[in-house]
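User:
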Amino acid sequence: MKIFKRILLLLCIVVIIAVFFNYPKLNIIAGYSAKNTASSVFLANRSLEFTDKTDNNFSPINLATDLVKKDKNIASSSVFNLLTRKAIYKEGLGAVLTLTKEDETEAYLVPKRAKSDNITPYPYGNAEQKDTVFANINYDKLNQTVASVFGKNQSRAVVVIYKDQIIAEKYADGFTKDSRILGWSMTKSIMSTVFGVMQHQNKLKITDKAPIDSWQNDERKNISIHNLLQMNSGLEWDENYNEISDVTKMLFLERDMTKMQAEKPLTGKINASWNYSSGTSNLLSGIVRNQFKTHQEYLDYWYSDLIDKIGMNSMVLETDLAGNYVASSYAWATPRDWGKFGLLYLHNGNWNGTQIFAEDWSDYVATPTLTSNGSYGAQFWLNAEGQMKDVPKNMYFADGYQGQRVYVLPDQDLVIVRMALSWMEENKFLKGVLESIKQ
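Assistant: Predicted structure:
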């Protein structure tokens, strides 16, 4: 009996020690699950059961137990009943993790939105296109290629747009053309485009030094907006999603996500130290906010001068608790609307006769950042060094976690959208699409 008690005591001590050292991780796990659940259920209109079975069904997030209170727009997630996090859904702003009880009832502003054009055919409206058959397309091969990335590759949607026409479109069970899907880091490309729009309107110049007050007394004052857009500032940042890191603390523990990167020191040379940083993207969102006199103007601008202007009416940008758009991670839209974003770049900023950003902005975002080995531009990813060997080197794309993609292929007059829960063999897939279209 004494031996049994000693063993039990020892086990209790081991459990206490394990909880003590892993408690911060439990906070991140519960935070991720609560936020994802709230967005999936309230913003994307999925069921809790579907969300748990798909979006949250991977280690270690599947350790959390999720609950939803639909009457209060709240989702909560608990890990072993040791720690619980809550996320609240705000109509017009999406879901946000709470840090205090007061966060659940705090008043908030919402962006003013334009009405959807359901009369004009896609892509300049949301009505269905007339059937167009291109003689140079092998539709059987194209459809086979698209189908190949479903099933085990966990694609949720693929839309192929050629000469402004949808030539292939497929959705997984539970998804349709009207389903909002999270773009994750494709949101960075939306944010970059906002800077292109603002520069086109002479509201700022990306060559200007970053207007961060706390940097003015040290070498960081020499960092430009351009350096930040290219993630080549030299600032310290740890983008590790498997540990307690800068990015996980920012996304799941911070009230104001625009500040964390600003507090980091230089650890490399400005314009010669490429380092992927979601903190930088949110810092840039804060810079956008500071260009406006009021919070309402900031909230409205992203939609009035970009998103709604090109008819991406399904898109919702989620904010942090301080009301900043989380430019690193949280834009939701239908696959077709993500396709409109790609088409805006394919047409060098011209949307049905209106110039949204300068024609050369497309070239700018697709220009390789120094020390990125030709893989990164201004919040877009590149194929400049032929990383995908069977794909044109001037192809560039918005890239998000778990394989979200908007590929822009200028020479082929082609935009391809792929939304998913896992990555795929990109070169093989894109090669198959390209081979189905005779140039």
